[in-house]
Amino acid sequence: MRFINRHPSRSGGLMLLLLPFIMLMAVYFTGSSMRLAVNPDDKLLPSAAQMVDAVKEMAFNEDKRTGEYLLWDDTVSSLRRLGIGLVVSAAIALVAAIATGAFPMASATFSPFITVFSMIPPLAVLPILFIVFGLDELSKVVLIVVGITPMIIRDLHARIREIPTELWVKAQTLGATSWTLVLRLVLPQVLPRLLVAMRLSLGAAWLFLIAAEAIASTDGLGYRIFLMRRYLAMDVILPYVAWITLLAWLADELLRRLTQWSFPWYGGGAR
Fold it and tell me: Reduced to 3 DSSP states, what percent helix, strand and coil does the chain have, rounded to the nearest 5?
């Protein structure tokens, strides 16, 4: 049997899945124990016990200054901003992609603009967003929208362009109006791809969120990481990074399962 056709068993697949994580943890804790053996006060690679104590302090003890449980309050703040940004981006992208993908006049007008706009580095306009929208919640959400909406629009636009010409011709031959074409032909093809595009843009959305929180915020996961950086508190920073990674994975898994449940016929969301 060719190696390219070999597939792991169920138990073997689980072991292969866990292997990179086990190796990463082994390398980290080996390095940590070596550094702490030389210098018990070393802060670069904290031990597991130090990180557990830091998580307990951040998650289960009230902050003496604010009376809040910092980890959970930071999580709620970040997820609220991320959720609003994703929903607004998806709504704008859906409308724009249908307009530019299904209507030639709209495509000729706006497609070049969207292409050029998508080339602007979102972090480069962050100071402009703070000046225009202030330092409150709106500027952080707008950064996410500016950062990921053009990518989603272009992805959905490409999907609409992939619809065979024969389907457009047959539908119009049967008397379909422009509105009917959008509802019965374009929308069913675009909605599952929208969920997939949101999955693909999650990493970028987290990046823009953390950048905005790090620069101008008083709460949030990104804010806390950059605040702890001043004190070299790696025992807090590393668990926060792991927590953000877990939240991102859960969001990706939620969107994947939503795609499978809502559009079981669509193969693009199978993985």
Answer: 80, 0, 20
